[in-house]
């Protein structure tokens, strides 16, 4: 079978990781990546010997790339002629503008969480609503927190049924290196409900959700605490067994040293994962408890890498490479080297 041809547009925090993830998929071909400037990520691509071809999004920006000595294989128009699907990982709002270009050449596109929901036909999560994405031209991924949260809630929901949830998001405010966010020393709080709770209800409308979000001046991972009301009582053992079976969830123990967001980042580095990336969310085993019949637990969200598997699922859905949800996610997981 011919491989599905992919371009990644926007080679930043998410785009670099999408490119690496797609390159690992044996049934997909990464034709190239697109950016506008000799950013650090683009300079690193050059220093690594250009494992991916680079295309320039804006012709007027070509001299900047050339002046930095970066080889450019063509323009955005050139690469769009060669691909079936674009993974758009540009800063929020740019994807919406790019959409016109994708429409013109009838190329499908997957947008990231920063874009408005209206940019896409379907708001997508590989595990929770795979079928809705089948054959659609424009999909939008859930944001990093929502992606991880839905993984955990969908896992419990398929086991026991979940009526409602209330969450608190302790949100890392910047990615490592985001100096434009400034030197910060405060905890900033948003009004209820957080967009992640609202987004979960768009993907899983049978669950009532609300949540509070606190921005924290850290860079390595969010933590979400969750109170979920199951349709029948479950035990801690049952919940942990289900989380343990999920290929995109890692159950970790505080007693073993996994006692912070940074412990997971450090562990990923010790595993030799590029950039300290971790595709899995983590459930902290010793946080699983109960308030009446409601189950309480905390998860870690590695914000820079968590959306990569679900974005690749979106390619599978939009191109109908697999019509079955579990077949699709299993292939993504296998090629990404997940359990
Ligand atoms: P980023 O700023 O790290 O990267 C964006 C890249 O796009 C940059 O390299 C920039 O040079 C390039 N770019 C700008 N304009 C362009 C254009 N017109 N054409 C092509 N490239 C262009 O951004 P990011 O953090 O990777 O975020 C991308 C998207 O992913 C956003 O929607 C964001 O909300 C979402 N997202 C981010 C995270 C995260 O933790 N950073 C997590 C999940 C989702």
Whole-number mean pLDDT: 97
Report the portion of residues in β strands: 15-25%
- Oligomerization state of this entry? single chain
Q: Provide the low-confidence segments as ranges.
A: none
- Structural category is alpha/beta
Q: N- to C-terminal separation?
A: 26 Å
Give the strand tally: 15
What do you see in this structure?
The chain has 339 residues and is an alpha/beta fold. The protein contains eleven helices and 15 strands. The protein has helices at residues 13-24, 40-47, 62-67, 76-80, 94-104, 144-160, 195-203, 236-245, 261-270, 307-318, 325-336; strands at residues 4-9, 28-35, 54-56, 85-88, 108-111, 122-124, 138-141, 162-172, 188-189, 208-216, 222-230, 249-252, 281-284, 289-291, 294-301. 44% of the residues are buried.
Please tag this protein with its features.
single chain; 339 residues; alpha/beta; eight-stranded mixed β-sheet; seven-stranded parallel β-sheet; 11 helices; 15 strands; binds nicotinamide-adenine-dinucleotide
Secondary-structure map with pairings?
Blueprint: E1 4-9, H1 13-24, E2 28-35, H2 40-47, E3 54-56, H3 62-67, H4 76-80, E4 85-88, H5 94-104, E5 108-111, E6 122-124, E7 138-141, H6 144-160, E8 162-172, E9 188-189, H7 195-203, E10 208-216, E11 222-230, H8 236-245, E12 249-252, H9 261-270, E13 281-284, E14 289-291, E15 294-301, H10 307-318, H11 325-336
Parallel strand pairs: 1-2, 1-4, 2-3, 4-5, 5-7, 6-7, 8-10, 12-13
Antiparallel strand pairs: 8-11, 9-10, 11-15, 13-15, 14-15
Helix pairs in contact: 1-10, 6-7, 10-11
The chain binds nicotinamide-adenine-dinucleotide.
